[in-house]
Write a structure and sequence with these properties.
The chain is an alpha+beta fold. The strands form two sheets. A four-stranded mixed beta sheet has the order 1-5-6-8, with no helix packed on it. Strands 2-7-4-3 form a four-stranded antiparallel beta sheet. The longest helix is centred in the N-terminal third of the chain and has 25 residues. The termini are far apart. The mean pLDDT is 81.
Length: 163
């Protein structure tokens, strides 16, 4: 019968090498894991439209907060917008709600290029509104963006991007 014995001094000499390998593997795992800045959001399908602020909307009590946003969860709340905008889409408030966003004015005529609902990696939602500033100089022109969302989605953060 053959029995192999290991010298303790050999084992102690090789252990720093194993420790270095373990530390290297740990560092590689940390470097390759995506951070929040590497996370790319995913666009989620949603219904949206936009309108210019007309006389009816100017003269109505819209119930917007200080940021120009309102979460509409009931037909009665939506009625003020429906009366001013007869082409509003129908909304089933049992399954959906509407976010109304008043786009702040600039010194040029705004054109909304795109309205997107984005889900981030951390399961947070945001609405991105991309606006082109046209060459037409017109002060205090307001637009409203309307986004219909399922009730399962919490109220999203709003990001207005001027292009």
């Amino acid at each position: 019968m053959y029995c192999r014995t290991t010298d303790k001094s050999t084992l102690l000499k090789s252990s720093p090498r194993y420790i270095k390998i373990v530390i290297l593997l740990f560092c590689l795992a940390c470097v390759n894991s995506p951070g929040p800045e590497d996370c790319i959001g995913q666009e989620i399908e949603s219904d949206s439209f936009w309108v210019y602020e007309g006389t009816c909307l100017k003269n109505s009590e819209l119930g917007l907060d200080e940021d120009g946003v309102r979460k509409v969860t009931k037909e009665e709340q939506y009625k003020v917008f429906s009366e001013c905008l007869p082409d509003n889409p129908e909304v089933d408030f049992n399954t959906s709600y509407v976010i109304v966003i008043k786009v702040p004015p600039r010194n040029s005529f705004p054109f909304i290029q795109e309205i997107k609902l984005i889900e981030n990696c951390d399961k947070q939602f945001k609405i991105e509104i991309e606006i082109i500033e046209t060459m037409f100089q017109e002060a205090n022109v307001f637009k409203f963006a309307f986004v219909t969302l399922p009730v399962e989605i919490p109220e999203p953060k709003i990001e207005i991007i001027w292009l």
